[in-house]
């Protein structure tokens, strides 16, 4: 699989180029963009950080269940990449650093564009 590098939008917000074609998953992606932006503006908010972790876990489970149900060939890789992100996110605490915010922004963009787009039309 060839991984491409996509630009991180500024301001950091979801747009149609991130649509995977499934309303529920697009809405969850929009929520992840929003919470990362909120954390960027509120670096000391433990409640926002907790909400971000919960949203990520919930979204990944939803996405993975859909992939399993559809026998999506990319499931194992997707699950591995999700787990790696959650491991990093689990170690984050307040105040959230620029490095972490930039990592989360970049990860979300690259993940949707390189991995999630692979299941578009297949779930």
From TrEMBL:
Keywords: Iron, Metal-binding. The keyword Disulfide bond does not apply. Residues 21-122 form the Hemerythrin-like domain. Belongs to the hemerythrin family. This is Hemerythrin-like isoform X1. The gene is LOC106806757.
């Amino acid at each position: 699989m060839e991984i491409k590098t996509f630009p991180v939008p500024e301001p950091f917000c979801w747009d149609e180029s991130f649509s995977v074609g499934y309303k529920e998953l697009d809405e969850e992606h929009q929520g992840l963009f929003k919470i990362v932006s909120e954390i960027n503006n509120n670096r000391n908010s433990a409640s926002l950080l907790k909400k971000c972790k919960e949203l990520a876990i919930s979204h990944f489970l939803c996405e993975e269940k859909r992939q399993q149900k559809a026998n999506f060939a990319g499931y194992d890789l997707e699950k591995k990449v999700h787990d790696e992100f959650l491991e990093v996110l689990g170690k984050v605490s307040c105040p959230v650093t620029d490095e972490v915010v930039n990592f989360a922004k970049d990860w979300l963009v690259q993940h949707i564009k390189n991995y999630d787009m692979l299941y578009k039309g297949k779930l």
